[in-house]
Amino acid sequence: MSIETFMGRKRDEYDPPVRGDRITGERYYSREWMKAEWDHLWQKVWHVGGMLNDLLEPGDYVVHNFMRESVVMIRQDDGSIRAFFNSCLHRGNRLVWSEIGGADLITCSYHGWKWGKDGVLVHAQDADDFPGGNPCGKARLVEIACDTWGGFVWYNMDRDAKPLAEWLAPLPEQLAGYQMESMRRVLHVSCEVPCNWKIIRDNFNESYHLPTLHPELADIIDDDHLDTSFEMYPSGHNRMVQKGCQPSGRLDLPDAVEPALAEVLAAWELDAEQFAGRAREARKALQQAKRELGKVRGYKHHDTMTDSQLTDYYHYTLWPNLTVTMSPDGFQILRSEPHPTDPEKCIFDHWYIMPEVPGRTEVVTPVGTVPYDHAEKEVVVYGTKTLGYVADQDMSIAVGQQQGLHSRGYAGGLLTNQEKRIQRFHELLNDALGVPRG
Ligand code: FES
Ligand SMILES: [Fe+2]
User: Where does the source fall among the domains of life (predicted)?
Assistant: First the structure.
């Protein structure tokens, strides 16, 4: 079988077979699963550690706490970035507590040992009082793999890990046109959500829920699965492309211009009236308008984006826990990480990252209008504040699913074809953990 997708690519190249392993409920709540994931998954994959915008000068650092581990990434004098486990070699005190900062030396709060940016010990109290001699200049923090891409610093606890660029394939090539590294994080919220991290993964690995959970999107995003491109890559990452600025083919009146589309048309100086009864022609017209007006308005990133990228949604789910949703004017990071101790909770992070445009002082984000400025991290208590209106809809169902998956009435999933990315995710996970198939 070889079917051309609308992106002009061969579907079967990116449509690997699945086995049909049962997706048992236990994986969403068992402590054994949680431990197996720590042992066989999390210590072997690349993690986003933070933004390069926070690592401008030598000594600048970012810290990423993951379950009970903590990693500090530090900009070096030669411009490189190195990552170390954030634990003092003396007696194990956590060294750096703030998630962003800068210092020439890291001083341990317990006995005052001082560590250089390169992880080498430069000062210890009573340095001559060690049976093996003075440890200064010899003791080194444990270093792990570190690299950069897309405006982010990444780390991997496995020093024998595949290089980041290879692990990310084919994203760097496909996303080069967006100029991600030149953008600014304008939204940064983090929340402990009462569900296992994989429930959020499953949600982002399918678009089957859009008509039921996010029906309002259909006026402006074509959520018809027959008009959506799904690709699953050998790396374990996958991509879904939906046409934007185009009403869904599922709608009773797909040719009507609803207010959401009219607003986008107006923003690009197109008259909604002209598209009355032929709304599905608006997408191409918008691409043209953005191409021309974008230059005048200083949208430099448009120069390197394709026509499709000017209107469409390129939604990537990276193995195992990172979603990167590329929109025409920015992108979202939607990440779910396991809770340090409770398999029925996770940490959900939502970032929105947007390009610089001359005169841009405010931007519309998933939580509303905010200043176009580097956002500080906000930790939200679940249910007390929005995490973004679409994310709120997703999280609301995730919590109920966590309950239902405990039931003896749930037998392991009954998926549609268009949810194949979920099936593949769980089979990759089974393989990584060495779980018997079945
Ligand atoms: S534990 Fe760090 S100096 Fe003692
Ligand atoms: Fe959703």
Answer: Bacteria
Burial (CB count <10 Å: 0-12, 13-18, 19+), residue 273 = exposed
Report the nearest atom of ligand 1 relative to the CA of 92: 1
Q: Is 111's C-beta closer than 6 angstroms to any atom of ligand 1?
A: yes
Tell me the per-residue pLDDT of 11-22, one tens digit each, with 9 for 90 and over. Answer: 667 999 999 999
Q: Which domain holds residue 304?
A: 11-28+179-433
| Rounded percentage of the chain residues whose pLDDT exceeds 90 | 95
**238 lies in the same domain as 89:** no
Residues 24 and 70 in one domain: no
Q: What is the mean pLDDT of residues 68-76?
A: 98
The CATH number of the domain holding residue 208 is: 3.90.380.10
Give the Cα separation of 244 and 159 in Å (integer): 41
Shared domain for 93 and 212, answered yes or no, is no
Structure tokens at 73: 């990434």
Please return the burial class of 107, using the count of CB atoms within 10 Å of its CB with bins 0-12, 13-18 and 19+. middle
Q: Is the CB of 352 under 6 A from ligand 1?
A: no
Q: What is the DSSP string of 175-243?
A: HGGG-GGG-EEEEEEEEEESS-HHHHHHHHT--TTHHHH-GGGGGTB---GGG-EEEE-TTS-EEEEE-
Q: Please tell me whether the peptide bond between 247 and the residue prior to it is cis, using omega within 30 degrees of 0.
A: no
Answer yes or no: do 18 and 85 share one domain.
no
Query: Tens of pLDDT along 96-142?
Result: 999 999 999 999 999 999 999 999 999 999 999 999 999 999 999 99
Residue 79 contacts residue 59 (beta carbons within 8 Å): no
Residue 108, ligand 1, Cβ within 6 A: yes
Q: Quick one: tokens of 138?
A: 């010899």
Q: Which atom of ligand 1 is nearest to the CA of 88?
A: 2
The enclosing H or E element of 123 equals: strand 121-123
**Kind plus residue range of the DSSP H or E element containing 331:** strand 330-338
Residues 207 and 121 in one domain: no
How is residue 318 written in tokens? Answer: 């990276």
**H or E, element range at 392:** helix 389-404
User: Whole-angstrom Cα distance, residue 238 to residue 228?
Assistant: 13
